[in-house]
Amino acid sequence: MASVGQKLKDARIAKGLTLDDLQQTTKIQKRYLIAIEEGNYDALPGKFYVKAFARQYAETVGLNPNEIIQELDQELGMPASPEEQAETTSRVQKREELTRPQDNSLSAKISKYLPTIIIVVVVVAILGTIYAVAWGNHEKAKNQQIEQTNTKVAVSTDVKKPAKKKKSESSSTSKKEQKIVNIASAGSTFTYNVENAPSQSTIELGASGGSSWDAVYIGGAQSWQGTLQSGATKEIQVPAGTSRVVLSIGNSNASTVKINGHKLNFLAQNSSLTVRKLVLNFTNGSSSTNAETQSQTQTAAQTQGQGQTVNNQNGYQTNQQQRYQQNNGQTNNYQTVTR
């Protein structure tokens, strides 16, 4: 009867495997494989490794590892331990289960996936319940919002009816629109009339695209002076009753001026100037009328004065002519008497 080592060797050769091939597959050192084939079990680290290496060798070359271990036990003269017998039994059962034909019927598949199906159905039911509750709350909130909107619309409609009357009343008493008119230009000085201005005005200085250095004079005294960086603004409150404000503007192309929210387009008068002085004359409706009346009175007075001057000049010339004629008559009479 052939030894275990010889059976393993014959099976290896029958499969066309070399010891190097077997070493690469089983990861068992080549010297241990040679020792098993030659029956030199003392060359291995211990009996446990003898059985483990022999089992792995047998599985690789296609022999029944359980039979090889049994023959190896007989050859070594030692029975298998209970642990080895249990391991051998479990291996046989696993192999039988793997080789046993599987039941591919529909009932077998359903029973296999039944727990998964139950879990999926429960999860779907929970999600459906949550969605139904959320949808119901959404519809309820939507209906409440519509009711509140309808109530607000009804209330606002009732409130807005008398508001039209107030609007018409305010429109009838609306003030005249402010106007800014350039009335004089001399060198770098430009004079503007701010007509229909409120009793207390606001001047806003700003800078855009560069820095602007400005100064404000109210009533002949300096009210503010400083440099505005690009994007910065400065508001100047003009006291009530002020009729004249002077602005000194540096870097005109980067400066802006607003009077009571109305932009002053000072670049329309000689846009090439960098530094300029802006004289603002503030007038409201009544002061404008008074100014016109005073201007007409002054014009009439000037005309009357000019007329009196002309009359005086004409009277003086007439008197001179009369005296000249009288002198000529006396001379002629004296010449006649002498002759």
From TrEMBL:
Residues 289-314 have a biased composition (Low complexity). Residues 78-101, 152-178, 286-314 are annotated as: Disordered. This is Transcriptional regulator. PANTHER family: CYTOSKELETON PROTEIN RODZ, PTHR34475. Residues 210-271 form the Cytoskeleton protein RodZ-like C-terminal domain. The chain crosses the membrane at residues 113-135. Keywords: Membrane, Transmembrane, Transmembrane helix. It comes from Ligilactobacillus araffinosus DSM 20653. InterPro entries: Bact_Cytoskel_RodZ, Cro/C1-type_HTH, Lambda_DNA-bd_dom_sf, RodZ-like_C. One of its GO terms (molecular function) is DNA binding.
